[in-house]
Amino acid sequence: xxxxxxxxxxxxxxxxxxxxxxxxxxxxxxxxxxxxxxxxxxxxxxxxxxxxxxxxxxxxxxxxxxxxxxxxxxxxxxxxxxxxxxxxxxxxxxxxxxxxxxxxxxxxxxxxxxxxxxxxxxxxxxxxxxxxxxxxxxxxxxxxxxxxxxxxxxxxxxxxxxxxxxxxxxxxxxxxxxxxxxxxxxxxxxxxxxxxxxxxxxxxxxxxxxxxxxxxxxxxxxxxxxxxxxxxxxxxxxxxxxxxxxxxxxxxxxxxxxxxxxxxxxxxxxxxxxxxxxxxxxxxxxxxxxxxxxxxxxxxxxxxxxxxxxxxxxxxxxxxxxxxxxxxxxxxxxxxxxxxxxxxxxxxxxxxxxxxxxx
Length: 359
Hints:
Elements: E1 2-10, E2 30-38, H1 43-50, H2 52-59, H3 62-69, H4 74-100, H5 105-119, H6 132-138, H7 141-156, H8 159-183, H9 193-199, H10 202-218, H11 225-256, H12 263-269, H13 274-279, H14 291-301, H15 305-313, H16 315-332, H17 336-339
């Protein structure tokens, strides 16, 4: 928000008449101060505002409400983590595709770094042994539909639509958990307190701003009303899926039976601790880089031009980091034959209309 103050002076030219008591009213220069507030709204802000009603569905939904008061059943949270892990395996691929289409090497390096971070969101082993057959067998209808939509957008459309499809996930978690942490009292014995706090951390907001800055560069020359409407459609669709993603955990719990959460059980029985899941999160994969390069990668993440430029100019270090990223991606994203399922023949299943792209 920028404040622009424009001073408009209207001077009445009079013969100055002095007075012992001071100038009379007719001799006073009349100054009119007009302050106009100009809001520089980014495309990311505009898209989020357009989808705010869907974001509020997540905020006020049963899953988040029960997480805040600590009553969310352990089985519901476990199911959420399981589906989120499957989702992130595809979300990581989406960032890999965006990286391949990136306008510059700085954007490429950042997207690849984030891609590996998503694979380790719930622990380094969470996705390192995930096979495509596991996704096909365990992913829910909502998870398949959501990831299919994202992959279709990044593969088949331009970068604006691609970013508009992947941004809602990041922006929602940033906004949602920061809002909860700021406006709601989270009891100390709430089993999900650390999970909420980790996603409410400032570094998560830094990730959002970085993604939105990349989106902004592709819209620098403006968007037609038609193109803006298309971007809003992609953003809205992803935000609707986010709400459905939370809801499915509650429905699964109701259909299969579950017990209320307790602080001890919730922290002890989650496959990877809630805190570790957040710390390993979608925020970075700095741990993959050599020790000497970690500082550079962190500064690049936070947008320092000086350190970011140094990081990119150090060609040897950059190549080493890239090799490590690609090695990690090869281990987790399967071999070439597995990756070709993205563009392979359309499956005959009719369970999910968009399932043809979920490979």
